[in-house]
Amino acid sequence: MDLKLPSPVPLRIQAYNILKEAIISGVLKENEMITERRAQEQFHISRTPFREAIQTLEAEGWMYTIPYKGTYVSPITAKEIEDIFELRLILETSVVRKVQSEIDNQSLNRLEALVTLMETEMAKKNIYQFIILDRDFHRVLYELANNDRLLTISEQISDMMRRIGVKALHSLPRWQDVIKEHRKIIEGLREGRAEEAIIDHLKKTEEEVKKTYEE
Protein backbone atom coordinates (compact mmCIF):
# COMPACT_ATOMS: atom_id res chain seq x y z
CA MET A 1 0.00 0.00 0.00
CA ASP A 2 1.38 3.39 -1.02
CA LEU A 3 0.68 5.74 1.86
CA LYS A 4 1.61 9.40 1.45
CA LEU A 5 1.10 12.50 3.50
CA PRO A 6 -1.47 14.81 1.93
CA SER A 7 0.07 17.57 -0.16
CA PRO A 8 0.04 20.96 1.60
CA VAL A 9 -2.38 23.50 0.17
CA PRO A 10 -0.44 26.09 -1.90
CA LEU A 11 -0.22 29.52 -0.29
CA ARG A 12 -1.99 31.18 -3.23
CA ILE A 13 -4.97 28.84 -2.73
CA GLN A 14 -4.98 29.51 1.01
CA ALA A 15 -4.91 33.26 0.32
CA TYR A 16 -7.70 32.94 -2.23
CA ASN A 17 -9.92 30.97 0.19
CA ILE A 18 -9.29 33.35 3.08
CA LEU A 19 -10.07 36.48 1.06
CA LYS A 20 -13.15 34.99 -0.59
CA GLU A 21 -14.55 33.85 2.76
CA ALA A 22 -13.90 37.35 4.12
CA ILE A 23 -16.01 38.76 1.29
CA ILE A 24 -18.78 36.17 1.69
CA SER A 25 -19.01 36.67 5.45
CA GLY A 26 -18.98 40.46 5.18
CA VAL A 27 -15.62 40.98 6.91
CA LEU A 28 -14.63 42.73 3.69
CA LYS A 29 -17.45 45.05 2.68
CA GLU A 30 -18.63 46.04 -0.78
CA ASN A 31 -16.35 48.58 -2.48
CA GLU A 32 -13.87 48.34 0.41
CA MET A 33 -10.21 48.54 -0.50
CA ILE A 34 -7.89 45.64 0.28
CA THR A 35 -4.14 46.30 0.32
CA GLU A 36 -1.07 44.09 0.67
CA ARG A 37 -0.41 45.62 4.08
CA ARG A 38 -3.93 44.95 5.32
CA ALA A 39 -3.82 41.39 3.97
CA GLN A 40 -0.62 40.82 5.90
CA GLU A 41 -1.79 42.40 9.15
CA GLN A 42 -5.38 41.11 9.23
CA PHE A 43 -5.17 37.79 7.39
CA HIS A 44 -1.44 36.94 7.60
CA ILE A 45 -1.15 36.72 3.82
CA SER A 46 2.24 37.58 2.31
CA ARG A 47 2.80 39.63 -0.84
CA THR A 48 3.11 37.00 -3.59
CA PRO A 49 0.17 34.78 -2.52
CA PHE A 50 -1.91 37.95 -2.11
CA ARG A 51 -1.20 39.13 -5.65
CA GLU A 52 -1.89 35.68 -7.10
CA ALA A 53 -5.15 35.39 -5.14
CA ILE A 54 -6.29 38.83 -6.27
CA GLN A 55 -5.81 37.87 -9.92
CA THR A 56 -8.12 34.87 -9.49
CA LEU A 57 -10.70 36.80 -7.44
CA GLU A 58 -10.79 39.53 -10.08
CA ALA A 59 -11.25 36.97 -12.85
CA GLU A 60 -14.19 35.48 -10.94
CA GLY A 61 -15.77 38.88 -10.26
CA TRP A 62 -15.22 39.05 -6.50
CA MET A 63 -12.88 42.04 -6.73
CA TYR A 64 -11.97 44.83 -9.14
CA THR A 65 -8.93 47.05 -9.56
CA ILE A 66 -8.80 50.74 -10.40
CA PRO A 67 -5.39 51.59 -11.93
CA TYR A 68 -3.16 53.72 -9.66
CA LYS A 69 -5.76 53.55 -6.88
CA GLY A 70 -6.16 50.03 -5.59
CA THR A 71 -8.14 46.82 -5.41
CA TYR A 72 -11.71 46.78 -4.08
CA VAL A 73 -14.45 44.32 -3.20
CA SER A 74 -17.02 44.05 -5.98
CA PRO A 75 -20.57 44.96 -4.95
CA ILE A 76 -23.50 42.66 -5.57
CA THR A 77 -25.66 44.21 -8.29
CA ALA A 78 -29.44 44.10 -8.55
CA LYS A 79 -29.05 42.23 -11.84
CA GLU A 80 -26.92 39.54 -10.18
CA ILE A 81 -29.56 39.06 -7.48
CA GLU A 82 -32.33 38.74 -10.06
CA ASP A 83 -30.28 36.32 -12.16
CA ILE A 84 -29.37 34.10 -9.22
CA PHE A 85 -32.92 33.82 -7.92
CA GLU A 86 -34.36 33.28 -11.39
CA LEU A 87 -31.94 30.41 -11.86
CA ARG A 88 -32.65 28.95 -8.43
CA LEU A 89 -36.39 29.15 -9.01
CA ILE A 90 -36.08 27.15 -12.22
CA LEU A 91 -33.69 24.60 -10.76
CA GLU A 92 -35.14 24.03 -7.32
CA THR A 93 -38.77 23.70 -8.38
CA SER A 94 -37.61 21.01 -10.81
CA VAL A 95 -35.55 19.38 -8.07
CA VAL A 96 -38.35 19.11 -5.51
CA ARG A 97 -40.82 17.99 -8.18
CA LYS A 98 -38.53 15.06 -8.88
CA VAL A 99 -37.49 14.36 -5.29
CA GLN A 100 -40.95 14.41 -3.70
CA SER A 101 -42.12 11.39 -5.70
CA GLU A 102 -39.40 9.14 -4.32
CA ILE A 103 -38.06 10.63 -1.07
CA ASP A 104 -37.72 8.26 1.89
CA ASN A 105 -37.89 8.79 5.64
CA GLN A 106 -34.11 8.69 6.00
CA SER A 107 -33.73 11.64 3.64
CA LEU A 108 -36.56 13.55 5.35
CA ASN A 109 -34.86 12.97 8.71
CA ARG A 110 -31.61 14.28 7.24
CA LEU A 111 -33.33 17.50 6.25
CA GLU A 112 -35.05 17.74 9.65
CA ALA A 113 -31.69 17.34 11.39
CA LEU A 114 -30.27 20.29 9.44
CA VAL A 115 -33.21 22.48 10.42
CA THR A 116 -32.70 21.52 14.06
CA LEU A 117 -29.05 22.54 13.80
CA MET A 118 -30.14 25.83 12.26
CA GLU A 119 -32.33 26.45 15.32
CA THR A 120 -29.29 25.86 17.53
CA GLU A 121 -27.19 28.35 15.58
CA MET A 122 -30.05 30.87 15.60
CA ALA A 123 -30.09 30.69 19.40
CA LYS A 124 -26.36 31.47 19.33
CA LYS A 125 -26.92 34.22 16.74
CA ASN A 126 -24.19 32.62 14.65
CA ILE A 127 -25.12 33.91 11.21
CA TYR A 128 -22.12 32.40 9.42
CA GLN A 129 -22.85 28.84 10.57
CA PHE A 130 -26.58 29.36 10.04
CA ILE A 131 -25.95 30.24 6.39
CA ILE A 132 -23.69 27.22 5.91
CA LEU A 133 -26.47 24.98 7.25
CA ASP A 134 -28.96 26.71 4.96
CA ARG A 135 -26.65 25.94 2.04
CA ASP A 136 -26.37 22.33 3.20
CA PHE A 137 -30.18 22.02 3.36
CA HIS A 138 -30.56 23.05 -0.27
CA ARG A 139 -27.54 20.98 -1.31
CA VAL A 140 -29.21 17.86 0.09
CA LEU A 141 -32.20 18.54 -2.17
CA TYR A 142 -29.89 18.68 -5.18
CA GLU A 143 -28.14 15.49 -4.08
CA LEU A 144 -31.46 13.67 -3.74
CA ALA A 145 -32.31 14.60 -7.33
CA ASN A 146 -29.40 12.36 -8.37
CA ASN A 147 -28.37 14.62 -11.24
CA ASP A 148 -24.67 15.46 -11.35
CA ARG A 149 -25.10 18.39 -13.72
CA LEU A 150 -27.70 20.02 -11.48
CA LEU A 151 -25.41 19.54 -8.49
CA THR A 152 -22.51 21.13 -10.36
CA ILE A 153 -24.60 24.20 -11.23
CA SER A 154 -25.72 24.52 -7.62
CA GLU A 155 -22.10 24.44 -6.46
CA GLN A 156 -21.20 27.18 -8.93
CA ILE A 157 -23.68 29.60 -7.37
CA SER A 158 -23.29 28.38 -3.77
CA ASP A 159 -20.67 30.95 -2.69
CA MET A 160 -22.63 33.85 -4.14
CA MET A 161 -25.76 32.59 -2.37
CA ARG A 162 -23.94 32.52 0.95
CA ARG A 163 -22.83 36.10 0.39
CA ILE A 164 -26.38 37.11 -0.52
CA GLY A 165 -27.62 35.17 2.51
CA VAL A 166 -25.74 37.50 4.83
CA LYS A 167 -27.82 40.32 3.36
CA ALA A 168 -31.09 38.40 3.59
CA LEU A 169 -30.60 37.50 7.25
CA HIS A 170 -30.23 41.05 8.49
CA SER A 171 -32.80 40.53 11.26
CA LEU A 172 -33.63 37.71 13.68
CA PRO A 173 -37.28 37.42 12.52
CA ARG A 174 -36.00 36.44 9.06
CA TRP A 175 -33.94 33.64 10.61
CA GLN A 176 -37.12 32.33 12.22
CA ASP A 177 -39.00 32.61 8.93
CA VAL A 178 -36.30 30.65 7.08
CA ILE A 179 -36.65 27.81 9.56
CA LYS A 180 -40.44 27.82 9.18
CA GLU A 181 -40.12 27.86 5.39
CA HIS A 182 -37.67 24.96 5.46
CA ARG A 183 -40.10 22.95 7.58
CA LYS A 184 -42.84 23.67 5.04
CA ILE A 185 -40.56 22.39 2.29
CA ILE A 186 -40.03 19.17 4.25
CA GLU A 187 -43.78 18.87 4.84
CA GLY A 188 -44.37 19.47 1.14
CA LEU A 189 -41.87 16.76 0.21
CA ARG A 190 -43.62 14.36 2.55
CA GLU A 191 -47.03 15.14 1.08
CA GLY A 192 -46.00 15.53 -2.58
CA ARG A 193 -46.58 19.30 -2.86
CA ALA A 194 -43.18 20.87 -2.22
CA GLU A 195 -43.09 23.10 -5.30
CA GLU A 196 -45.34 25.73 -3.72
CA ALA A 197 -43.21 25.76 -0.56
CA ILE A 198 -39.89 26.17 -2.40
CA ILE A 199 -41.28 28.96 -4.60
CA ASP A 200 -42.59 30.78 -1.51
CA HIS A 201 -39.23 30.40 0.24
CA LEU A 202 -37.17 31.68 -2.68
CA LYS A 203 -39.51 34.60 -3.39
CA LYS A 204 -39.43 35.73 0.27
CA THR A 205 -35.65 35.42 0.41
CA GLU A 206 -35.28 37.50 -2.74
CA GLU A 207 -37.60 40.15 -1.30
CA GLU A 208 -35.53 40.36 1.88
CA VAL A 209 -32.28 40.72 -0.07
CA LYS A 210 -33.70 43.47 -2.27
CA LYS A 211 -35.08 45.24 0.80
CA THR A 212 -31.60 45.56 2.32
CA TYR A 213 -30.32 47.22 -0.86
CA GLU A 214 -33.16 49.75 -0.81
CA GLU A 215 -32.48 50.81 2.77
UniProtKB/TrEMBL annotation:
Q: Which UniProt keywords apply?
A: DNA-binding, Transcription, Transcription regulation
Q: What is this protein called?
A: GntR family transcriptional regulator
What's an example of a GO molecular-function annotation for this chain?
DNA-binding transcription factor activity
Q: Which InterPro entries match?
A: GntR_C, TF_FadR/GntR_C, Tscrpt_reg_HTH_GntR, WH-like_DNA-bd_sf, WH_DNA-bd_sf
Entry annotated with the keyword Transport: no
- Family annotation (Pfam families): FCD, GntR
Q: Which domain of life is it from?
A: Bacteria
Domain HTH gntR-type stretches: 9-76
Q: Which organism is it from?
A: Collibacillus ludicampi
